[in-house]
UniProtKB/TrEMBL annotation:
Short name of one Pfam family: DndB
InterPro entries named among the record's database cross-references: DGQHR-contain_dom, DNA_S_mod_DndB
Signal peptide feature range: none
NCBIfam families, sorted: DGQHR, DNA_S_dndB
Spans through the membrane: none
Coiled coil (UniProt feature): none
Protein name, as recorded: DNA sulfur modification protein DndB
Taxonomic source organism: Streptomyces nitrosporeus
Length: 374
């Protein structure tokens, strides 16, 4: 049985072949080859033709077309510094390697020749391949740019399926916090990094790498929680980075004045662990909700004196986990919940304390909660 989700190279008369400059390697006793392929060749060589097969007859997941616009936009928006990792492919056909020399360093470098009627299977990188095809249609200048391709001999469907499983078995998505820390394109990431580095209420109290805090951590916040809260705060506001950073810092410093436990941690009257255990206001759901509240106030008035005054009632909010008002809103089954619905219910609770109206969507969620449907 032929491997599924195969890609078929254009068939030509016998004797015609693709020639790739390549490096030869050995893994698990099997030869494989690494080459640099011009982007213009990728859609021509790797053509999907078996999307309708059942999973057990495929060696790849079905192409998720919903991912393609973001990947394509990434290439087109960053033509001078986009980065794509190598594609991995199995070749159902002969692969002849002509080394540059019989021994020495040249033994591993040479020309890889593959017949044009060989069939190619992408083991890893089908979404990158599809995004490259779409990007080339909008920007032909990308034609001569290259991407690394790792070629393996196709040893049948079972081997190809195992390769897919092995390539993805240990793949771990990095924590959102370290993604924010290392992302220099996203304006919100830049704002949060700069703010946490200079604001005394955050400096030294933000976990920059992990998105979850251990019970004994001395940190008060995660970078990812501050990111989502600040992103919600600045959403739709047309501000340059410096102005956005200053505004965000001023807002969170204002929030800090309404939450005495934050100050108690900094003065060591309370430990971070105790504060997180007994209160919810440093958790991601609270920061996100406070960001949304701030966004509403800033849209009404950018005057600090006005929006800061509107936040004064926050001092009367009982943020303790023991407050039964949080059950079903910010806490579900004794645990803080980060779901979109729970964020909205937390926003609603704060809006009511501040005397702010609810949007139609917020009112719908609130009504469902009061009916017991949430």
């Amino acid at each position: 049985m032929a491997p599924a989700t195969r890609v078929v190279a254009p068939r030509t008369s016998t004797g015609f072949e693709y020639t790739f400059p390549a490096i030869r390697g050995i893994q698990a006793g099997r030869e494989f080859y690494v080459s640099m392929c011009p982007l213009r060749l990728i859609p021509k060589i790797f053509i999907f033709d078996e999307d309708e097969l059942s999973p057990e007859l495929r060696a790849q997941r079905i192409l998720n077309k919903g991912r393609l616009p973001a990947l394509t936009k990434y290439i087109l928006d960053n033509p001078s510094d986009y980065v794509f990792s190598a594609l991995t492919a199995s070749v159902d056909g002969e692969m002849d390697f002509d080394s540059h020399s019989a021994d020495g360093p040249g033994f591993r470098t040479g020309q890889l020749r593959i017949p044009m009627d060989a069939r190619f299977l992408i083991n890893d990188g089908q979404h990158r391949r599809a995004a490259i095809e779409l990007a080339l249609k909008e920007s032909p200048d990308l034609n001569e740019e290259t991407i690394a391709v790792v070629f393996f001999h196709d040893a049948g469907l079972d081997r190809s399926q195992q390769m897919f499983a092995d390539l993805n078995r240990h793949a771990v998505r990095p924590a959102r916090s370290i993604g924010v820390l290392y992302d220099h394109r996203d304006p919100s990431s830049q704002v949060v990094r700069e703010m946490t580095g200079r604001a005394k209420i955050f400096k030294g109290y933000v976990e920059m790498e992990k998105s979850n805090l251990s019970a004994r951590s001395r940190m008060m916040f995660t970078l990812s929680a501050l990111y989502y809260g600040t992103q919600a705060l600045l959403q739709g506001l047309d501000l340059k980075q410096d102005a956005a950073t200053e505004l965000a810092q001023l807002y969170w410093e204002t929030i800090d004045k309404a939450l005495p436990e934050w100050e108690m941690v900094r003065t060591r009257a309370l430990t971070s662990a105790e504060m997180r255990r007994d209160f919810i206001h440093s958790h991601g759901i609270a920061l996100h909700a406070l960001g949304r509240i701030g966004n509403s106030l800033l849209r009404e008035s950018t005057s600090p004196a006005k929006w800061q005054k509107r936040l004064t009632p926050l001092e009367q909010v009982d943020w303790a986990r023991a407050n039964t008002d949080w059950e079903g809103r910010a806490i579900v089954g004794g645990r803080v919940s980060k779901s979109h619905q729970n964020v909205t219910l937390t926003v609603n609770y704060l809006r009511n304390h501040l005397g702010l109206g609810l949007s139609p969507e917020e009112q719908r969620v609130e009504d469902a909660y009061l009916r017991g449907d949430a």
